[in-house]
Amino acid sequence: MAQLSDRDTYDREKGDLTPPPDREPITRQQRIFRVVLWILGAIVLAVLGYIVHTHKAPYPFELIATKDIQGPHPVPCLAIQQPRSALEAALFDVSQLNNPVPSVIGGAIWLIGMLVLRLWRQALTLVVAVLSVGGLFLLLTPLVARPRPTIQSGICVHDHYSYFSFPSGHVSHDVVTYGFLLYVTLSEPVRSWRYRWLFIPLQLLFVFDLLTIGYSRLLEGDHWLLDVTGGYILGILWLALFIYLYRRFVSHRGKHHHTRQRERATARA
Prior knowledge:
Blueprint: H1 28-54, H2 60-70, E1 77-78, H3 86-96, H4 100-116, H5 120-144, E2 156-157, H6 169-186, H7 200-219, H8 225-268
Parallel strand pairs: 1-2
Helix pairs in contact: 1-8, 3-7, 5-6, 5-8, 6-7, 6-8, 7-8
């Protein structure tokens, strides 16, 4: 299998990572709109954090949502002891694979794969994005200090955690990790590779995880609905930020490469 690298771009020029010439540049109005949208998302996250900080008990709609997802069960109830369908088992695995130890192992596998394919910049961006969103989670959870669900609430609980609940770390981690991996496989240079169809199963896996991780956390009874919502918002904000930073870096490097090419051509002339 041929190696895939940052140099395998649409025109195959060495080091050329700029977008194809037929792609319209982002206008100033579009850029302002995206910044405003990002700021509004951050405000919504802050408001949600304040709401659950001042009202630490679950809201009635959160209890209803969890009970509807979990279905009938004895009280008290431990989720790990309940019978599961094949789909529920798969959804439980989505959460379990994102516990600290499995997520580190999985992250190392993704990282090694990207390095083998010589996607250096993408790998570095992924590492920084995942580590920083994890640090942000550790900063926000004690500030909000919302307790985890317990069996006293009348729901099935998978485990008793000693740390707080808002926002969901599993959800924010998955949105950043699998969201960025999905972006990498759908953008240059991967989409110009003739074997790009090999990534389709992975892309489906990424989408499945992104769509189900929140549901999985409620099914396990490890979070309330607002915790999961906060995790999605945090993850999307952080993912958008790092995609922007990555694209800025690539664009700057591509322009610098073209400038050097013109200077060399002028010198030879």
